[in-house]
Amino acid sequence: QVCSHFGWRGEGKSLGPTQNSTSTMGREGARRSSSGSLHSSTRRNTTTCDGYSRSRSPAGSHRRKKLRSCSNATSAFDEGRKQCSASASRARENASTVEPSVSPQREVGSSPASSGASSGGAQVTRGGRSGGKNTRSRSASEKQQAPLSPSVPTSQPLPPPKFKHRRTSGEVLRCKKGKRTDIKPSEWDKYRYVDKPEVLQRPLSDYGPQVEPIRRVKRKDITPQWFYEHVASKNQPIIVDDCMEDWPAMQRWSIDALEERFRHVAFKVAKDDKGKKLRTKFKYYADYLRNQQDDSPLYLFETNVDDNASIRPLVADFEVPDIFPHDWMSLVNSDARPPFRWWCIGPKRSGTTIHTDPLGTHAWNAVTHGVKRWVVMEPKEAKKVVKGRDLLRSGEDDEAIMYFDFLLPRILRANPDLKVLMADQGPGSVIFVPGEWWHAVVNLEDTVAVTQNYCGPENFSMVWRKIRKEREKVAYLWLRNMRKYAPELYEKALRMNRKDGFRMRHERPAGERLSSCSSSSSESSSDSSSDEVEDLDPGGLGTVLRRRLKLGSDAFCLQANGDGNRGAPPGLTGSVRACLPGGTWENRMRGAADSRKVP
Asked: Helix or strand or coil: residue 510?
């Protein structure tokens, strides 16, 4: 085997008691020689590495020949081992003194391994056979020194990470299998970005002169009115620093603190091909986050913050910044409203690829821990240009970290006139992304954030035109509540419908549908959804509601009668009071005051 490794010709010396028996070196020489008799002799009778002779003699004589050869087997094996060692020494001496010739006709950029290596390990050139060992070592060094293209996965897999909890690996495997069926769970780290920290540490200036920084301001230097007039109404992205100093989340949303609070609560970390949410306990996800080495790790995106009783305490840890006072889609019942608020934890190297937010809504994103890197492009840019999928090479993927690593530089080189805005967002900062602006993000560190989409006066026209086509039932419920609680907004929506010649679903004949509407999203809402005052969220509706109208929990509070009788005792909302016979509520309240008991 040693002689075969170095490409050394065997001498064919007999080592066994039989004349035609050969050693390992002899067999290698016999294999390479052209003598048919030596080949047949080697096949008929050969001394194996364990000292016994193999023979194709009849079954009766095989046992006797085996016993006779045992006395000489040990000495034959020792002699063969000595000769192999001597041959290996001579091969090393020759390889150190003779420089192998390299073919000058090898194609530029071809792999060193494909430049003519023979099956025996030596390289065949015009000069003949050269030393095999030196050629193999030279090829290996060339492979190590050549820079790896990001499109080519490395051949050596990473060792699996070691987790603290016994069940973490099984939970992670289950979620990975469900999220991506196109690759194996073991291939999530095949590009080995965990060994390329320079990708996350790259300065923004390295992306070239086409990249401009996103505008930044301090919260103390602006007012909500200034923000509306100079930013929101003009659809310009911006980052507002020092905007969350009074949030409890700045201390309570560290990974350790969250694990202590929600250790056994299941959060959504992925979706399968059928749209089913894949959840895992936070203690397993925190263990995965601290030890993962994936190129694009699992991203915790929780949408049921308001509905899940186990997660609802997170809502008390933050508040909507006062520079975003509008949220007109709160007129839609929470059961029928599309997802609009996400609480997310992104491990480093995770992120989202280039996209636009749904229905033309504006978005704000607040980071409490970690750092995000953003790239933003104007709505006028074509989808084909900003995604750059035609620039992908064979074997490459388009995950978020790969977009920032090599795909975005290619897009910039291919489109010299493309305008790109980039910035890094740290703890305490809020970024505003206008509707229909392209944006992508990658997490440079383990990051915790909350984000929300909303509709206000500056983008109501765009949102209404999109939602009435793409979410018919949601638009119907929204319009119905506009008529009940926000008459001015209702009239504006009707004027837009008349101007565009658009008919709502309740205005069209039965069975007639819009060709561009989404059936899955349209059927997600029910016409019988409860839209009473106590079912609606009053947040962000202060500028459109009727005067003195109370929504949500405020509707349950005691308030004035509202029927013009100032002397009437306080009561509940008019709808609750109307259910009682005349004077019943007042009598109950008067009796409660006399007995000092609450009815």
From this structure: coil
